Amino acid sequence: MSNIALHTQLIKTEAKRLGFLSCGISRAEFLEEEAPRLEKWLHQNMNGQMSYMENHFDKRLDPTKLVPDSKSVISLLLNYFPSETQKDSEAPKISKYAYGHDYHHVIKSKLKQLQEFISEQIGEVHGRAFVDSAPVLDKAWAARSGLGWIGKNSNLLTQKVGSYYFIAELIIDLDLDYDTPVTDHCGTCTACIDACPTQAIVDPYVVDGSKCISYFTIELKEEIPADYKGKFDNWMFGCDVCQDVCPWNRFSKPHSEPLFNPNPELLEMTKKDWEEITQDVFSKIFQKSAVKRTKFSGLNRNIQFLK
């Protein structure tokens, strides 16, 4: 077995041991196909007030500008599908990914361990870990690495697994064996387009971020436009509609990461509990959660908007 094949096998085996759902690898090079798509999306202001999406355009498309001399992009998936959801069907809803501890911290820790393993087993390898907070097109790299295809709802979809997982990367200066993309299995299905409460999926494979419930409830810092009143399908933080209706998610299986388990109180809270939530309760329940990002004032704004 060649060194390249051996190193690739070592990395994939360790990724599995660390609890990642899957690991795919692609060559670190300019994303030629994605460049015009991203440019058009930004030009049409589909990023809304997410002005950070306009920054570092070159770095978003070329990993060698993020990590000098990089050779490989290692893409990793981590399952977050919960075994149970909120009990009160009338309570305002939180996106499943935010039930447990903030995924940034959970995944960063695993990536650090993987990086240390590579250095110990292979030698001096330079690189950087990325979890959704740097200018990296996660889904494009995961698709290139054969971990799934980008569906009509613009999420990465995987046969037998669905889409309830986080995507992260290690970009390193080591040559590895590269995986090949898989084919698109959306077919003629339009379930996500038909179900989107705010018609944010403006074309198959194109989501207008400025119309998405996740954008309104997390990214938008000012008042939510009044003409969206009654269109949020009771979501107070994020939205899972386009994933919930996707036929591939009937294959989703509960995760096995204890840190993603929700605070039991979160699942038990009733509609009334949420409407009367205090700063103290918010701080207690979301102490280590990604929901902290919206702050108490932001979550309260969203809850009041649903009334």
TrEMBL record:
Q: What is its main location?
A: cytoplasm
Q: Where is [4Fe-4S] cluster 2 annotated to bind?
A: 196, 212, 239, 242
Example GO CC term: the record gives: cytoplasm
Keywords for this entry? Answer: 4Fe-4S, Cobalamin, Cobalt, Cytoplasm, Iron, Iron-sulfur, Metal-binding, Oxidoreductase, Queuosine biosynthesis, tRNA processing
User: Quick one: which residues bind tRNA?
Assistant: 221
What pathway annotation does it carry?
A: tRNA modification; tRNA-queuosine biosynthesis
- Give one Pfam family: Fer4_16
Subcellular localization: Cytoplasm
Reactions that this protein is recorded to catalyse:
epoxyqueuosine(34) in tRNA + AH2 = queuosine(34) in tRNA + A + H2O
Give the binding site residues for [4Fe-4S] cluster 1.
186, 189, 192, 246
Per the annotation, how and in what number is the cofactor bound? Answer: Binds 2 [4Fe-4S] clusters per monomer.
**GO BP term (any one):** tRNA queuosine(34) biosynthetic process
Q: Which cofactor does it need?
A: [4Fe-4S] cluster; cob(II)alamin
Superkingdom assignment: Bacteria
Q: What are the 4Fe-4S ferredoxin-type domain coordinates in residue numbering?
A: 174-205
The first-level EC class reads: oxidoreductase
- Report if keyword tRNA processing is assigned: yes
| Residue numbers annotated as active site | 132 (proton donor)
The record's family statement is: Belongs to the QueG family.
* Protein task: Catalyzes the conversion of epoxyqueuosine (oQ) to queuosine (Q), which is a hypermodified base found in the wobble positions of tRNA(Asp), tRNA(Asn), tRNA(His) and tRNA(Tyr).
NCBIfam families given for it?
A: tRNA epoxyqueuosine(34) reductase QueG
Full protein name:
Epoxyqueuosine reductase
Its ancestry begins with: Bacteria, Pseudomonadati, Bacteroidota, Flavobacteriia, Flavobacteriales
